[in-house]
Design brief:
The protein is of the alpha/beta class. It has helices at about 60-70, 80-90, 105-120, 130-140, 175-180, 200-205, 240-245, 250-255, 255-260, and strands at about 25, 30, 35-40, 45, 95-100, 125-130, 145-150, 160-170, 180-190, 220-235, 270-280. Bound molecules: S-adenosylmethionine and zinc ion.
Length: about 280
């Protein structure tokens, strides 16, 4: 209905990835005063990724994005989503600009939007991901969240313009996250804990390793709250087992022989273990 346009993008202080001038979102393009222009896709996603020159960008491909969308729709990760929302909401007000850095297909982004609405707060959410497929899936899910294709190592947003930023299982760039946050802005980091998916790994690898314990110290941020969330889920079908595997990094780290071990699994009890770390941006003297 709104065609290409992402009106909400103008609520974020987007900057041109080429020259750093402010970007204004129009009907079909987003452009700066120096005539650098970026097309909006049919779904209204804009690609602000600076080319590496080699044409290669990592990020989730279509198969991984589909697997994650399918798996997350089953509700296994809903307790995590609720914990994320509960932790962030007290720091957000009506209209707060919030960035989801490495948003994937946007499950947690949309859940936060809906949760905040229940409390009378309409957030300005921006999903940022290096994967075109992921950003397109997010815009397919809802047009109430703005989305850009960009690396979160260089978010094309003016310094100090976000109230909060969340980064869930996605790459961490502390300096850049601090730059885009306003003074006292909050940052929620979610990481897998040692035992996360251990039973899945046991099915594939002879010597499965535990995830490294998270380091809660992040330069430029003060830890203000922490929550460990651990529970077991019963995967009910071969499709669910396969989708969980496909949405993890093991998908591209595992050889065919090892992957085939999963094909016969009709069900699986698996541990989900998450660490949620909430930080406040440290104010500089
Ligand atoms: C494990 S997924 C997590 C996605 C989402 N937060 C979730 O939990 O469902 C990691 C995401 O980070 C994205 N990603 C990887 N490197 C990135 C980068 N440098 N900048 C932005 N996104 C990146 C991938 O494309 C992928 O969507
Ligand atoms: Zn420009």
């Amino acid at each position: 209905m709104d065609g290409h346009c992402q009106r909400d993008l103008n609520r974020f202080k987007l900057i041109c990835p080429v020259c750093g001038s402010p970007l204004i979102s129009g009907e079909k393009t987003v452009s700066c005063g120096n005539a650098h222009s970026f097309d909006l896709s049919r779904k209204g996603a804009v690609n602000l990724l600076r080319s590496s020159g080699k044409g290669k960008h990592h990020g989730d491909d279509k198969t991984m994005v589909r697997a994650r969308t399918m798996f997350l729709s089953k509700g296994y990760y809903d307790p995590l989503s609720e914990a994320v929302d509960e932790m962030l909401l007290p720091f957000l007000k009506d209209g707060s600009p919030v960035i989801d850095a490495g948003c994937g297909e946007g499950k947690y982004t949309e859940d936060l939007l809906l949760y905040a609405r229940d409390y009378g707060k309409e957030l300005s959410l921006l999903g940022v991901d290096i994967s075109k497929e992921a950003v397109s899936a997010l815009r397919g899910r809802t047009r109430d969240i703005s989305a850009i294709v960009a690396s979160t190592s260089a978010i094309p947003i003016k310094a100090g313009s976000a109230d909060a930023l969340m980064c869930i299982f996605s790459p961490l760039f502390p300096k850049e996250f601090s730059r885009v946050l306003r003074p006292d802005g909050v940052f929620l980091h979610v990481v897998p804990l040692e035992n996360h998916l251990i039973e899945l790994k046991e099915k594939i690898y002879e010597h499965p390793y535990l995830n490294p314990p998270p380091d809660s110290c992040i330069d430029g941020f003060e830890l203000i709250a922490q929550k460990d969330l651990s529970y077991s889920v019963h995967l009910r079908s071969r499709e669910d087992v396969a989708a969980l595997f496909q949405m993890t990094p093991y998908n591209y780290k595992t050889g065919r022989d090892d992957q085939s071990k999963l094909r016969s699994l009709e069900e699986l009890d698996v541990t989900l273990a998450f660490g949620l770390f909430l930080y406040q941006k440290e104010s500089r003297r």
